[in-house]
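Sample pair:
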Amino acid sequence: MFRSIIAASVIAAGLCGTAVAHDAAADDASKVTLVYEHELPNVPGKSIKGVLVEYGPGGFSDAHTHPNSAFIYATVLEGSIRSQVNDGPVKTYQAGESFSEMPGDRHGVSENGSKTQPAKLLAVFVVDTGEKELTYPIKK
């Protein structure tokens, strides 16, 4: 069932285009786009939100967290993504590979694994419906 949701999410990301976009890094090397948002009819108070993250060559996002209610399942759509969750190892994920973040996790590293090729990932959030902000920078 969950794989069906993810497959539908990947298709939706490809079809929806740019609904809302902003730069996640100061150097314009990344772009974050909310591609869909739906309340879950069988889970009152929860929504599913699909976020397309695009990194230019060498692009990255600063260390961040997400709302405490958020479970995130991310799938690399293109290129490679280097990621570190909490104090775990930095891992490189290739197109087609996925990783998850549990409520309260810290995302210390999120960056393109290449200095020459673009990369994309789809982050699927299951989150409280009232949550509007999905990413909070970690103050250094």
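The CA atoms of residues 74 and 123 lie 4 Å apart.
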